[in-house]
Amino acid sequence: MGRSKEYVRTEVLDKAMNQFWRSGYAHTTIRDLEKAMGINQFSIYNSFTSKADLYREVLERYSSTMHRTNLRNLSSKDANISDIRDFFEQFASCLLNKEMPNSCMMVNSILMFEQFPDSIRQVVNTFFDSIESYLRIALENSKEKGMVRPDLDVETEARYLLSISQSLSVIHFNKKKSEIETYIDHALTKLK
After folding, report:
1. Domain tally for the chain?
2. Is the dihedral of CA 101, 106, 111, 114 positive or negative?
3. Same structural domain, 122 and 139
4. Nearest Cα to 16, choosing from 61, 49, 67?
5. Domain hosting residue 86, numbered range
6. Buried b vs exposed e over 174-185: b needs ≥16 C-beta within 10 Å?
7. What is the rounded CA–CA span in Å between residue 159 and residue 12?
8. Does residue 131 sit in the same domain as residue 172?
9. What is the pLDDT of residue 113?
10. I need a surface site. Which of 32, 42, 130, 132 has the fewest CB within 10 A?
């Protein structure tokens, strides 16, 4: 009995994700995708209509995967400052893992944001909006429990922490683990 199309589609999307993540959108050709995905050009266009549409689906899959894994604790309605620290430490660990593709795929997409159609921009914006929302809720919970300064501006600090996570994706290329840990410590210490 053969695999269902949904299973094959998911498998192919994962292969495309890996290719885009390692090479970037602009540097990934349809020929690269054929090789990585194990399907021909006709099948790519038949299933996804365009490279941009395929990339949008890849970003949606990436977002879904990140929400199930790296963002699971931070997205909890009971999240607090400890979950924010765990998020940053896990994120830094992924960035420094030489076996993983470079940077965060969504941050990579921001660098080409103006070149993308609205459908891709929307996926990227939704991803970062959700992280900012999780950070805001975790900070609100922490404020209620006295884990952060009582005068903390939750909105501003949630945006600040989001920007720190995005900047880590860029600066990790030329920083040591200890330096990245210092950035994280400083960002979180100022909340207390």
Report:
1. 2
2. positive
3. yes
4. 61
5. 76-192
6. ebeeeebeebbe
7. 34
8. yes
9. 87
10. 42
Whose tokens are 């390692």? That residue is 22
The predicted structure's pLDDT at residue 97: 81
Q: How far is CA 151 from CA 18, 32, 171, in A?
A: 43, 52, 30
Q: Tell me, what amino acid is at 104?
A: C
pLDDT, position 2: 46
First to last CA, the chain: 58
Question: Alpha helix locations (H) across the chain?
Answer: 5-23, 30-37, 41-48, 51-68, 81-96, 105-110, 118-144, 154-171, 177-189
Cα 138 to Cα 2, 86, 135, 153, 157: the distances in Å are: 45, 12, 5, 13, 11
Residue numbers in the chain where pLDDT is lower than 70: 1-7, 102
Pair of tokens at residue 20:
């885009």
Residue 52: per-residue pLDDT: 96
Both tokens assigned to 29: 């050709």
Query: Residue 182: what pLDDT?
Result: 93
Distance CA 152, CA 189 (A): 12
Q: Which tokens sit at 38?
A: 């194990």
- CATH number (domain holding residue 120): 1.10.357.10
